[in-house]
Amino acid sequence: MPTVSENLETTIAGYATALAADSDSPQPSYTLDGKSVSRNEWREGLQRLIDALQKTVNRMTPYVVSTKQVL
Question: How far apart are CA 34 and CA 28, in angstroms?
Fold first, then answer.
């Protein structure tokens, strides 16, 4: 069973793939049923989500602090 970190990494990878696909074949902004969808806002929002998820993964990852003793 995947860990929470692994699930988050998979989600981040999927979002990054969506951004890459949009970069390869950008879609225009549009209006659907009276709601406007700005492609730039969508891209910026997705990038903010990726950043937030990556921060969460970083907080969950164990780390080592090493110091040097000066004599």
Answer: 16
Integer Cα distance of 6 and 11 in angstroms: 9
Yes or no: say if 33 and 41 are a contact pair by the CB < 8 Å rule.
Answer: no
Using alpha carbons, select from 19, 15, 11 the residue that is nearest to residue 40: 19
Residue 56 to residue 48: CA distance in whole angstroms:
12
| pLDDT bucket at 65, cuts 50 / 70 / 90 | confident
pLDDT over 90 at 11, yes or no: yes
pLDDT class of 16 with cuts at 50, 70, 90:
very high
The number of residues in the chain equals: 71
Contacts of 27 (CB under 8 A, 6+ apart): 39
Sketch the domain layout of the chain as residue ranges.
Answer: 4-60
